[in-house]
Amino acid sequence: METEVRIEKLVHGGQGLGTLEDGRKVFVWNALPGELVRIKVGKTKRKYAEAIAEEILEASEDRVEPREENYLSTSPWQILPIERENAHKTAIVQELFTREGIELPAFETESHGDVWHYRNKMEYSFWGDDTGLHLALYRRGSHGKYILQGIELALPAVDAAARGVLGTLQQTAHVRASHLKTIMVRSTQDGKAVGALFVKTKEFPELTLPADIAGLKVYYSNPKSPASVATELLQELGDTSLSDEVLGTRLNYDVTGFFQVNLPVFTETMKLIDQWTTGDSGIIDMYSGVGSIGIPLGRTEALVELDPFNVAMARQNTDTIEIIEASTELALDYVQPYATVIVDPPRSGLHADVVKRFIESRPKRIIYLSCNPATQARDLALLSEAYEIKEFRSYNYFPHTPHIETLALLEPRVQ
Q1: DSSP result, 151-212
Q2: Judging by DSSP bridges, how do beta strands 121-129 and 365-370 pair with one another?
Q3: β-strand 365-370 against 340-343: which pairing, if any?
Q4: Which pLDDT value is given to residue 274?
Q5: DSSP annotation string for 305-366
Q6: Is-contact 365 410, C-beta < 8 A?
């Protein structure tokens, strides 16, 4: 179905919001507030629909030309200048917290460093045709793929490494796109790139180390599992170690493990966390990953992390901090009234038992870094009976995309 719609605002998730003739709300990609657009409706539900703007009939003054033809798949806000993008992200965060009844301190969404070529990690799919094997990505809203030459968001070393692996695969006999899942590439800030290739067969040909990449792991991944889930390591070529500095502390991480994608913005975040915790002891870093927050602070008592790959890296990164290999909700004895607790949970937010423990134990300070302000707003609303927000920040970790990271400093209410 095609129709015209006027866009009211941008919403959490990245789409423009409009209203169809039948009164249902429609969430539209490639659309900005105030624009009149002709849309092609895809998914439809009883109360809403999703669509893509096929033609811009009346364009916003904010609209700019995107750098990439297939920008909707990776960075749909390339149609906005960064200043307007940040303003929209501020408004979205404000609306999410207002909906939960939370009044935030004054804030603006901050950008730091280059807003292009900032990603130190990318995952590419593959496409095969009569001309050979290609790197590819999925088109938004479909199972179709498009051939990729490069991506404007990635560090140059990441794209170069991916093309190097592609070149080796193209020259290796009997390798087809149907044998491959994805290639994940990470690069350090000084340009050392490492890859992880996920394949569908254990009988995969032996590879030579590709050009423009320091190391490569080849994993068999069960065809029934998600794309980048490793079942068995088949080959390891070159030097697959990765490390970067945060606040002067060198941290090791794995190509498949968790590490911040935009290190310049994370560094600014860490400077503030360091300032907030000056003089604190008994810092507990929960959902700690490889220790990228807790270890550089230098005052941390314990790291809590469930993923075994991240735990292994954390143990390489420190021999003075206790590391608890457990889910956060099973390590709540470490949440004590004297503690400063730092949490950086997944998009789903805090486990209910963690919230309950915070309210019961009332640690002296909670620092909450979130990759999903919607679940953070929910959690802070639950904590509001015991805690108040002393400071708040919003960061643009992923320019030209709808993603937002938010940081809150909580302290107990005076009883």
Answers
A1: -TTB-HHHHHHHHHHHHHHHHSTT--GGGEEEEEEEE-TTS-EEEEEEES-SSPPP-PPPTT
A2: unpaired
A3: parallel
A4: 97
A5: E--HHHHHHHHHH-SSSEEEES-GGG-GGG--TT-EEEE---TT---HHHHHHHHHH--SEE
A6: yes
Q: Take residue 359 and report the two structure tokens written for it.
A: 């309210």
Task: Tell me the angle at which helices 373-383 and 82-99 cross, rounded to the nearest 10 degrees.
Answer: 30
> Which CATH fold topology does 2-63 show?
OB fold (Dihydrolipoamide Acetyltransferase, E2P) (2.40.50)
Q: Is it true that domain 121-242 has CATH number 2.40.50.1070? A: yes
What is the signed CA dihedral for 144, 146, 152, 157, rounded to 10 degrees?
110
**The dihedral sign for the CA sequence 382, 384, 390, 392:** positive
Give residue-wise pLDDT tens across range 100-119.
999 999 999 999 999 999 99
State both tokens at 56.
């811009």
What is the largest distance, in Å, between two alpha-carbon atoms of the chain? Answer: 72
Return the beta strands (E) in 229-328 as ranges: 232-238, 242-246, 249-253, 283-286, 300-305, 322-325
Query: What do you get for the CA distance between the two ends of the chain, in Å?
Result: 58
Integer Cα distance of 136 and 149 in angstroms: 8
Q: For residue 279, what are the contacts with CB-CB under 8 A and spacing of at least 6? A: none
pLDDT per residue over 112-138, tens digit each? Answer: 999 999 999 999 999 999 999 999 999
Contact 66, 79 (CB under 8 A): yes
Q: Does the pLDDT value for residue 142 go beyond 90?
A: no
Where in the sequence of the chain do the CATH 3.40.50.150 domains occur? Answer: 87-114+262-412
Residues 6+ apart with CB under 8 A from 23: none
The per-residue pLDDT for 247 is 97
